[in-house]
Amino acid sequence: MKILLKNGFVVDPSTGLNEVGDIFIENGRFAGMTEPEKTIDLGGRVVMCGGVDIHSHIAGSKVNMGRMMRPENKLNVPDTHTTGVLYAKMGYTFVTEPAMPPLKALHTHHELHDTPFIDNAALALLDNNHFIAENIAEGKKEENNQWVAWYLAATKGYGIKAVNPAGGISWEWAKELSDLDEKCERIGVSPREIMTELVRVNEELKLPTSFHLHLNNLGIYGNSDNTTKSIDICSKGRTHIAHLQLSCYSGDSWATMASDADRICKKLNKTDGITCDMGQVVFGDCTTMTADGRLEYHLQKLTHNKWVNFDVENETGTGVTPYTYSKNVAVNAIQWAIGLELALLLKPGKVALSTDHPNCGPFYAYPKIITWLMSKQARDKEFSECNQDAAKRCILPSLDKELTLYEIAQLTRSTPASILGIGHGIKEGNKADIAVYDLHPDERNPGKIENAFSDAFLVLKDGGVIYQNKNFRETYGKTIAVEPKYKLDEKYIEDKFYEEYSVLSEHFKI
Amino acid sequence: MILLKLRKEPSMAVDAESLCVDSLVLKSQEQIINLPVYRGNKKERIGDYFDLEFQPGKEDLVKIHGNLSRFNRIGQGMTTGEMEIDGNVGNYLGALTKSGKIIVKGDVADYCGAMMTGGRIEIHGNARNYLGANYIGHKKGMRGGDITVNGNAGLDAGAYMAGGTITITGDGLDFLGFGMTDGVIKVRTPGYAAGGSMTGGRIECESADLLPTFSDKGNGTFAGDLAAGGKGEIYISACANKSGK
Questions:
Q1: In the CATH hierarchy, which fold is given to the domain comprising A2-49+430-472?
Q2: Nearest Cα residue in chain A from B199
Q3: Does CATH place domain A51-420 in 2.60.40?
Q4: Which residues are within 8 A (CB) of A141 and not within 5 positions of it... i.e. 6 or more apart?
Q5: Confidence (pTM)
Q6: Which positions in chain A touch B199 (Cβ < 8 Å)?
Q7: Is the pLDDT of residue B245 over 60?
């Protein structure tokens, strides 16, 4: 079908467009000027490419554990169908599930397959993998190239994810690592060694996306030094730091915890190849879920909430527990401020929007976060309702910058797409995933902006209308995965599986 | 006084939230018999099951006669008036009650008085499971109000209780007062793990087989649940006059 989207205000940082224009679509892709069979007049409304979420827990074993844990608040961790609907409604067309344990890949893919509308990808958790760690201890690099290439192909993963590297191995023994050079239990490798190795393998295998990293000592006061050291360690290759807000704390207790975002941003801005996503807090009831089991243990000790902790044999672990971010808790207010500071202080291309859904906030609160970034008045109002002890422990009140629509499009489209290495932008040949918002480009009213981004005027996926006039036309997207071109020694992998896993390698593959 | 007599028993469970003083008071005959009840996914009316009579007496008193064991959510969320039910009742009787009084001359099924915040429920027969308990997943259940049961209760009576009083003349089954943070439960004999994970509140009974994480304070008082760092108390009258350890 040849479609013309006429008279939209096109905001597309991938191609630099920021002006009124027409968009031609043919056979599901952007095309050169063509005689249209169908024309839609957008009336000057804002048009962007479909939104891209680089880090959102939407599919798999721990997500489902979160659903089971929250029967009293089902929208907190939505089911697969609701997830797809709510993303499509916001004009998002691509979501990355950031934490797929290889042993549980089948569950992740079943759920991604069951999620309507969005294209998607899953990152494989290789952070505390015993085989990779043992090879590091023995200096075996070729074997690790094999493992990563094999795991990604076998689990239909898209990239490498590490959560609390080496810390997870110690956590299997209820122990924690205090610094990046401390060796973990039994296998005896350090976080530095695992990070260095995974960055190396990512570049060696020429994988499309950066090495994705959830830092050690996440969510604890005084962890910002860890962050700057990790940035140095990982700058030998492309690294994407997940939910950076949770790793920007100075201080030596919760009473002295403060934002160190300014210093972290200065460092990040001058370190090539390192990017991040915000991990923005949205006040209210959340469900934390992460492969960082020790963090979840500490959180539930604080809250006495229901909690699940489990181990994924040979590979990684998980913790799930609810947590409520309150405005009258100064630490939560500082956490909230830090996320926004990151988006306001980092250069374009360095930061993507996220809430680490459902950890710091639900993904369907993105429109609200956009208003905080576009309107100082809107974020000042939110902050005025917070415990004012936070005011001296963060720099947000002093930041006047208000992001433009173009910068919002960078945060939610071009930057995450570029980090993920997926084709993006209104360019001939690209997939026509488009979101039109009932918004004029000079609108500055936060309420109107939030409403517009919450309920897209029109959404196209692969050139077909999927949402218009509050009606959905149900479709399913595609899961993208990598097949690293690397010669595999299948026998080596088979033997290891036979010795160490409770399944055979041939049954492990999706 | 509004009198509803059951004329026809339903073939399956009926959600009858409209059978509540708040929905019925000051309404006309026509309005009342047309109020909705839900049988599965079918919307029906009160008049499909009940005959309605207005009788002299308080206008916020509702009497219902008949075997209501397939009717759920009667009196749910009540804030005013009084209900007197002559017959057995289904699930969620008086759940979420804020104020008012319900008397049941019969048995009730599960979740009677669940998530209650005030008011009074009297059950002359037996209650089944989750009496005055929390809805699944919620950290706290009943926060206020009074429930009395002349007969026995089932499992999880007063689970996650956070206030109010439950008085069971007979016995309870396992997990009575599980996860309690406040409030008082009186029972003759509870079952296994009474007060398990309790961190506050009080259970009074005649005899009980307690978890090993309750410590004997003497005079029949046991403190726990120590496994939860709890400061709850279980008083066992059969153990009074015995010194602690």
A1: Urease, subunit C; domain 1 (2.30.40)
A2: A304
A3: no
A4: A135, A197, A200
A5: 0.92
A6: 304
A7: no
